[in-house]
Write a structure and sequence with these properties.
Layout lengths: L1 H15 L7 H8 L7 H4 L4 H8 L2 H9 L6 E9 L5 E7 L4 E4 L19 E6 L4 E6 L12 E5 L4 E4 L11 E5 L2 E5 L9 E5 L4 E5 L10 E5 L2 E5 L12 E5 L4 E4 L2 H6 L2 E6 L2 E6 L6 E5 L4 E5 L13 E4 L4 E5 L5 E8 L5 E8 L8 E10 L1
Antiparallel strand pairs: 1-2, 1-24, 2-3, 4-5, 5-6, 6-7, 8-9, 9-10, 10-11, 12-13, 13-14, 14-15, 16-17, 17-18, 18-19, 20-21, 21-22, 22-23
């Protein structure tokens, strides 16, 4: 009887171990090398694996162990041109493989009427592997939405979060210090700014904009969020723009050179602000804050096989990703040249044939 009990205890201990024969701390180090797309399957191995892989600290541990373990993935928010059906896809630029995310919950009070894809705003807390999709607009009556949905790469799942106090569409959103800020929107009358705390799942007011504006483009550089309305026909007035400083909880006017030269979709790559021009050859330029000017980046524009519309995003390593029609993606690596000159080298990752009818409306980078 004693031998049977000892044998049963040994078997239970082995089953409880994350990897039989290894201490749990060593087993957790092994799991850090598991690529993001396979973490969903790995969570079904055991309760212990599921607990570790779903933990918010898992991605932080990957980054701490080695920067190469937490690789950048490009998450593209796209829609079907004929049905307006929304979907997210994730691209691993290293392997050039795509992975489909679970369907995002339908926004709106239980109805399934079509939504206007470009009206949403998206933000990401890249190092925590979190995406946020805010607001939007019902296509039928053009009414703005208050909804907020969050995606966690750790659990590969979506969840509704506390709705925004103010319904918004065509507005700016950005992540600063792990919190999400929403500003402007609609017909430009919404000057209220609100801040979402993911830890508390709650919103609080932030300093309001000096004047409300609809979003043309927005970017976060450091702890400042830049929002511009862009040029509008007949181009006889300088575009409006504002800059939110999170440390001071205050807005200031956007510098003249910055707002007048912001003529495309922005990407923050390596801590620098770039724009991919929406006209001509879709060339790249970088903003020089000290001189309040934009400088051309040599190396050519986005390769012509990547068709508009564009969704543009950058990563911390100086790469710019341009997702285009059919989810063809141009990956541009920005390198320093002589003096202050910069040069971009492009590589195109073709989208699968199944993506032919998809158009991108937003792109975010997560380190997973």
């Amino acid at each position: 009887m004693k031998e049977r009990l000892e044998k049963a205890t040994e078997e239970e201990e082995e089953e409880a171990a994350m990897i039989p024969g290894l201490p749990d701390e060593v087993a957790e180090l092994c799991l850090l090398h598991l690529p993001f797309p396979y973490q969903t399957l790995a969570r079904s191995v055991s309760a212990a694996w599921n607990r570790v892989l779903s933990s918010a600290s898992f991605l932080r541990a990957k980054a701490a162990a080695s920067p190469s373990l937490a690789a950048p993935y490009v998450f593209v928010f796209a829609f079907d041109r004929s049905s307006l059906r929304l979907q997210w896809q994730a691209l691993d630029p290293g392997s050039k493989r795509w992975f489909v995310l679970p369907p995002m919950p339908v926004a709106g009070d239980g109805e399934v009427s079509p939504l206007c894809p470009p009206a949403f705003a998206c933000a990401a807390v890249a190092d925590r592997g979190e995406l946020y999709v805010l607001g939007g607009m019902r296509a039928a009556d053009q009414s703005p939405l208050r909804t907020l949905f969050s995606y966690r790469a750790g659990s590969n799942s979506w969840a509704p979060a506390a709705p925004m106090p103010t319904p918004r569409s065509f507005f700016a959103a950005g992540a600063i210090g792990g919190k999400i800020y929403a500003a402007g929107g609609g017909d430009g009358e919404a000057g209220e700014v609100e801040c979402y705390d993911p830890t508390a799942d709650s919103w609080r007011p932030a300093a309001g904009m000096r004047r409300g504006m609809a979003r043309y483009d927005a970017a976060v550089v450091g702890r400042r969020m830049y929002v511009t309305e862009g040029w509008a026909w007949p181009f006889d007035a300088s575009p409006r723009g504002g800059v939110y400083d999170a440390d001071r909880d205050a807005w200031e006017e956007m510098a003249v050179g910055l707002r007048e030269g912001w003529t495309g979709a922005s990407a923050v790559a390596g801590g620098r602000l770039y724009v991919v021009a929406e006209y001509g050859d879709s060339k790249v330029k970088r903003y020089d804050e000290g001189r309040d000017t934009w400088k051309s980046v040599s190396g050519g524009g986005v390769p012509p096989e990547v068709g508009r519309p564009f969704a543009v995003v950058g990563d911390g390593d100086g790469r710019i990703y341009v997702a285009g029609s059919g989810l063809d993606v141009a990956v541009g690596k920005v390198e320093k040249g002589e003096g202050e000159e910069e040069r971009v080298e492009w590589e195109v990752v073709k989208g699968p044939p199944a993506f032919a009818d998809l158009a991108p409306c937003n792109a975010q980078v997560l380190y997973v």
